[in-house]
Amino acid sequence: MATLRIRDAAELLGVGDDTVRCWIDSGALAAAQDASGRPVIEGEELAALAVEQARTRFGGAGSARNRFPGLVTHVVVDMVMARVQMQCGPFTVVALMSSEAVRELGLEPGSVAMASVTATTVAVETSAE
Hints:
The protein is α+β, with helices and mostly antiparallel strands. It has helices spanning about 5-15, 15-25, 45-60, 100-105; strands at about 5, 30-35, 40, 65-75, 80-90, 90-100, 110-115.
């Protein structure tokens, strides 16, 4: 079972180390100790919390499984189309949509939104070590 240190868990969830420690202290997140006595979190436990946090923040139901809560950081709108950039934890997501949709959703820098991603192909890469 993969385990993560608090710092790594916080980075993956897009929160601070202290937030992860608060979740551990409150019992919202279980932690164990590694061989050196440092707190670690099982990857499966962290994944379950990430899913629950996303549902709690945004609620609702839908068929898309790849949903990323985030903050709108940049919006470029022209007559027909718009480019919306979001920061979703450590990831930047860019969406191209109609200008009308941007206006209807009220998207502007600082807006909180959910990026729902679908794809016919997803490439997965790892670092060469």
